Amino acid sequence: MFKDIKQVMKDSVLYGIGNVAVKLVGFILIPLYTDAEYFSTADYGLMGLLEVTSQILIAVMGLSLYSGLIRWYWDAEYRDKQKTIFFTTLLFTILTSLCIGSVLWLNVGELSALLVQQEGYSLGGELPYILQLLILTSMLGAVVEVPQNLLRLQRKPIYYSLTNIVRLFVTLVLTIYFTISLHRGVSGVYEAQLVGIVIQLLMVLPLVIKNSSCRVDRKCTIQLLVYSYPLVFPAIVGSLLTVFDRYIINHFQGLDDVGFYSLGYKVGNTLKVFIVTSVQLALTPLLMKKMNDPDNKRFYSKVLTYFSFGLMFCALGLNLFSREGIVWVTTNPDYIEALYVIPFVTYAIFFSMMRECCMIGLQIMKKTKIISYVIVGITILNFFLNMLLVPSMGMYGAALSTMIVHVISWLACYIFAQRYYPIPYELSKVGKVFVVGTILYLIGILFNETAIGISILVKLVILAGYPFLLYKWHFYDKDEWNNLKGAWKKWSDLRRLKENVKNVKYRES
């Protein structure tokens, strides 16, 4: 079991490089996006709205078919039809994207009026063109998701990462050129994104050709759609779960507050981009492959424990140093308003991760409709909580609402999953992780206003105390503590850093 977990960690590093590359553009360009010479706070707020709109479009166009691909690709009954399953998934995704994209393209004027209602906003006239760029990018994004998931299934993280890194480089260079040299503003940002996704699609084209069998098998198609269709609505609603807040803040508070909130959310969301998604990219195929193993339940239990331990450590570090980070990356002091949005977002991501881990039982038992009901329910709750809290608390009300609904969603998925596929999760250990992480964060924020040198030093000590406080609280069993000490001994020796990095190898199957 430890061997499997170590393999997941190695894969996570490689997938993480590629996954982070896609999202990294937004983080690298924060100093540019928050520079008043090129973008106003309202411009940044608009980009925040457009970013979440793109997430919704990709979810709608993708129809969650990639979930069916992941589920059936390694199924013993369909091993000889893998190329047919892949081709069917890709074909349906392309057709859906074309249909939805065409409808949206014909109505960009009306969509522009709905999206920006702020009087006197100077960019309003360019918005239809920007939305057309967004529609094209979203269509291609939904399509490229299919071969990217195939790379995961075939365990080719280097290929996966390379395509994303090239996309990052192209998008980054063109964004800087279009914005600074050509003064294209928000339009230049989305022109660069479109070119980047086209390059990525060309890079995976050989993979698509090699792994496609240009035929549609009736039985495969039915199985694919039957498994995927219950996930379509929750995928769309799940996207809405994370974007309602921006639209509601825009309605009640305006684009400037959307800009502040978007920055806080983006900083907090680094936890998901760098850690959660990277681990899940490596972990999900392994979880499915182990579903018939005799020790699978213990493995699933330990995944939640170790994932919670590592994620809370990262969340604590991000929360502690978020003030210093915002001051460092932004030139506009107004953006410090985003500071206290961040911890709500990181805790929401923590419980979201727990929900994803606990859903494995429902996926194994093919109870995907329950997942749909849970996601729909908490999305409706999130909407009403935002409508209740945002008018009085502004963006902080939106952040609080996000955290509350993710706690409830984890609890609901856990209860239903245990009913159909009981797994002996170590919830007492997860609870210790949560309590220790929260207490240390509350201690750390007391030093936010002290001199920056003292503040950083104290916060580093607080962060380093996290694993030792858990040790005092009897968090680790004997094997876990020995493995932790061994890892510390290995990686703390900087003289052997190069050798250790070389040893982290991956052999593509």
What is the string of SSEs from the N terminus onward?
HHHHHHHHHHHHHHHHHHHHHH
- Tell me about the largest β-sheet: none
Strand content: under 5%
Q: Return Rg in Å.
A: 23 Å
Give the helix tally.
22
Low-confidence stretches: 504-509
* Share of helical residues: over 70%
Number of domains: 1
Task: Please give the alpha-carbon distance between the first and last residues.
Answer: 20 Å
Membrane topology: Multi-pass membrane protein
Protein name: Oligosaccharide flippase family protein
Keywords: Cell membrane, Membrane, Transmembrane, Transmembrane helix
Subcellular location: Cell membrane
What does this molecule look like?
The structure is a single chain. The protein is mostly helical. The longest helix has 35 residues, at 218-252. The chain is globular. Helix 3 (41-62) crosses helix 11 and helix 11 (255-268) crosses helix 15. It is built from 22 helices and no strands. It has one domain (2-503). The protein has helices at residues 2-28, 30-33, 41-62, 65-73, 82-105, 108-115, 127-153, 157-181, 185-210, 218-252, 255-268, 270-289, 296-320, 322-329, 342-358, 360-364, 368-393, 395-420, 427-444, 452-472, 478-492, 497-503. InterPro entries: Poly_Biosynth_Transport, Polysacc_synth. It is found in: Cell membrane. One of its GO terms (cellular component) is plasma membrane.
